[in-house]
Amino acid sequence: GENVEQHPSTLSVQEGDSAVIKCTYSDSASNYFPWYKQELGKRPQLIIDIRSNVGEKKDQRIAVTLNKTAKHFSLHITETQPEDSAVYFCAASINGGSQGNLIFGKGTKLSVKP
Amino acid sequence: GAGVSQSPSNKVTEKGKDVELRCDPISGHTALYWYRQSLGQGLEFLIYFQGNSAPDKSGLPSDRFSAERTGGSVSTLTIQRTQQEDSAVYLCASSSTRDGYQPQHFGDGTRLSIL
Q1: Do A104 and B42 touch (CB under 8 A)?
Q2: Which of A73, A106, A111, B10 is least enclosed by beta carbons within 10 angstroms?
């Protein structure tokens, strides 16, 4: 079955710097890749997602890139702010995300220091 | 409109007791998912519903775990004869299935503690 690896497990950056989180997946049939942000004690919230027919997607300070050949995708956060501090999870699905389960990475704890 | 609602928010029970966790999805969402998140860990898939049927129960860890969904809406996850290793946050998510690429929206979860 699908396996998703996420790195790094912890990441500390200075406010204003960029942060990059990387994930690899094993099932070449995966076609949907969301990223969730989870603040302490709160629900995971979708911040951006990408379909397999797209190589890159941007939303303000957040971007995701997908390399289907290498089976990896990355989250890029520019101009980081203290409120970006949270745990970020990547996920993959072979069912487009709405007709089957997501397989999650183990998370990256991002700390943005003012 | 309202998001995914889960109850109770916290549940403390003794080992060996049965517990029922409830999920009320976003109105109109036909797909519903249960996940489990242990302390400091990622999310582990448990079961997926499409309407009232469960095409994928592959994540249920043992036969002590069961779930049902009625009326295509509310779902309950039941854990029988609870064990300490069942302690975790149980998260429910729902999604529309309009075109197959709809995001999953999560509830706040039920924090289950087994004494």
Answers
A1: yes
A2: B10
